[in-house]
Amino acid sequence: MTPRRAVLIGLGMVADTHALALRDASGAKLHGVWARSTDKARAFAARHGGPRVYGSLDDIAGDTDLDFAIVLTPPDARLPIVRALVSAGLPVLMEKPIERDAARATRIVELCEAAGLPCGVTLQHRMRPAACALRQQLGAQALGRIGTVDIRVPWWRDQSYYDAPGRGTYDRDGGGVLITQAIHTLDLALDLCGPVASVQAMIATSSLHDLEAEDFATAGLRFANGAAGALMAATTQFPGGAETITINAEHASATLTGDSLDIHWRDGRVDRIGAASATGGGADPMAFTHAWHQAVIEDFARALDEGRPPAITGRSALAVHRVIDAIVASSRSGTRIDLTTPPQGDPT
User: Fold this and answer.
1) Which of 75, 139, 182, 226 matches a 20 to 30 Å C-alpha distance to 158?
2) Coil, helix or strand for 162?
3) Which CATH number fits domain 126-281+320-338: 3.30.360.10, 3.40.50.150, 3.30.70.2330, 3.90.79.10?
4) CA distance 71 to 343
5) Cα–Cα distance for residue pair 22/13, rounded to 1 Å
6) What is the chain's Cα-based Rg?
7) Distance of CA 312 to the CA centre of its chain
8) Domain residue ranges of the chain, discontinuous segments joined by +
């Protein structure tokens, strides 16, 4: 089958990872790139096999050879781009986060849904082999009822990371460690354990960084299934370590550490799946494999071929946006936030 042709829109930090993923992907290939800086786009294209360099969004919309777009821009730039792509009938795969908050993210997802176009999100931790193995165990009820969940993102970022214009600001990024780093691990925890019913939280900007938003967050979580959970996320923990999710259940405790899984069964058995791998938790935020992005892109291309939704839909990604919004709201108000009430209102 002819590979699906993709355009990369926005050529920031993660763009090389997507280009490598497309290079190695089965069923998809890099057809073109676009960035605000034409010189930057040309240099990027020269490094990645010479795809077409578009001069504008209108040029992208007019290219009938394209099959889908991968949007990598900062979240504050998403809405007009997605509108243009939807008007052109192009399916959209976006980097996380969708937008700066749940209301704006919902607007983008609903734009795609109203047009009947696939909308996917690169929350690639869901595609890690160890995560898929744990999902299978949970789906088979092998671990039994979940009692508690522990989510930790002990990452490090140097001040130079936050010195980049707009990084860690509410106007461009929508926040700090929660929406930029911890979103992956928190999304995976929701995917594995189900929705969160309520949160009580504290976020802070530590003395270790100069940024507008938070570099530390802690929250108590009550899952809809009754399980209690705890979240700690930070970019203050030098030199940075792998993120973990521990699920303590009726028959076993399972811990995901990056892309490795340990299951300690109550009967004494121990299962180990995968191996330690770099996850981008240290000073180099791009120190991780492109294989997980490749899995997301390959699934998106297959979904187009098969006429089905992608594995990670925009609609499913809204859950983590709502939890992040609730954590921030809880910290600011000093109260527990209930997530069982449907969200109200539109973004300003």
Assistant:
1) 75
2) helix
3) 3.30.360.10
4) 26
5) 16
6) 20
7) 10
8) 4-125+292-313, 126-281+320-338
3-state secondary structure of 304: helix
- The H or E element that residue 4 is part of is strand 4-9
pTM over 0.70: yes
Cα(101)–Cα(145) distance, integer angstroms: 32
pLDDT digits (tens, 9 = 90+) for 35-52: 999 999 999 999 999 999
For residue 253, list its beta bridge partners: 248, 264
Q: What is the dihedral of CA 285, 287, 292, 298, to 10 degrees?
A: 90
Tell me how many degrees the CA angle 19-53-30 measures, rounded to the nearest 5: 30
Which pLDDT band holds residue 343 (cuts at 50, 70, 90)?
Answer: low
Read off the amino acid at residue 204: A
Tell the residue number behind the tokens 């991968």, with chain if given.
Answer: 70
3-state secondary structure of 246: strand
Burial of 83 (0-12, 13-18, 19+ CB in 10 A): middle
DSSP-derived letter for residue 180 is I
Torsion sign over Cα 240, 241, 242, 247: negative
**Cα–Cα distance, 29 to 3 (Å, whole number):** 6
Tell me whether strands 337-338 and 260-265 are parallel, antiparallel or unpaired: unpaired
Query: What's the CA gap between 235 and 188, in Å, rounded?
Result: 19
* pLDDT tens digits along 103-154: 999 999 999 999 999 999 999 999 999 999 999 999 999 999 999 999 999 9
